[in-house]
Amino acid sequence: MSFELDTLHHAITWLLKPVIIILAVSVILAVLEAGLAVGERLFGLRAMRNSGNADAVVKLARHRLERADLLSRIPPMLGLMATIIPLGPGLAALGQGNPAQLAQAVTTAFDATVLGLIAGIFGLVIGKLRRRWYEDVLETLEDQSLGTQS
């Protein structure tokens, strides 16, 4: 039984670095996505309204909203993973009389949590704003369509 638990422990501990890398990439992607949203707000929405193509707007909106939704959900979960993973070895180190290792583990855990929350907050805000923007564009296109049919 001990071999299986040791193997499980090492496998889970191995996950910490990839999860932290993914979290850092998520923050970078969140910043890039925010920049895209600003450009979209300043220039893209007007072009969408002028295109008159509601189907293209719906397709684009679905794609961009899915990205924002993933960004708002996955990084916080990964942040939680990266919070819990180092705490096991940190608590074990405390039991062995090594509080410095516990302090390092707790620092890593909190930093990872912050990274996940930053990316998640960006994704949530971008998604909410985009939903409202796309709804406004689609309402405008619908009104234009009804106006030309009359």
Automatic annotation (TrEMBL):
<keyword id="KW-1133">Transmembrane helix</keyword>
<feature type="transmembrane region" description="Helical">
    <location>
        <begin position="102"/>
        <end position="126"/>
    </location>
</feature>
<keyword id="KW-0472">Membrane</keyword>
<dbReference type="InterPro" id="IPR050790">
    <property type="entry name" value="ExbB/TolQ_transport"/>
</dbReference>
<feature type="transmembrane region" description="Helical">
    <location>
        <begin position="20"/>
        <end position="39"/>
    </location>
</feature>
<dbReference type="InterPro" id="IPR002898">
    <property type="entry name" value="MotA_ExbB_proton_chnl"/>
</dbReference>
<comment type="similarity">
    <text>Belongs to the exbB/tolQ family.</text>
</comment>
<keyword id="KW-0812">Transmembrane</keyword>
<dbReference type="GO" id="GO:0005886">
    <property type="term" value="C:plasma membrane"/>
</dbReference>
<keyword id="KW-1003">Cell membrane</keyword>
<keyword id="KW-0813">Transport</keyword>
<keyword id="KW-0653">Protein transport</keyword>
<protein>
    <submittedName>
        <fullName>Outer membrane transport energization protein ExbB</fullName>
    </submittedName>
</protein>
<feature type="domain" description="MotA/TolQ/ExbB proton channel">
    <location>
        <begin position="61"/>
        <end position="142"/>
    </location>
</feature>
<feature type="transmembrane region" description="Helical">
    <location>
        <begin position="77"/>
        <end position="96"/>
    </location>
</feature>
<dbReference type="Pfam" id="PF01618">
    <property type="entry name" value="MotA_ExbB"/>
</dbReference>
<dbReference type="GO" id="GO:0017038">
    <property type="term" value="P:protein import"/>
</dbReference>
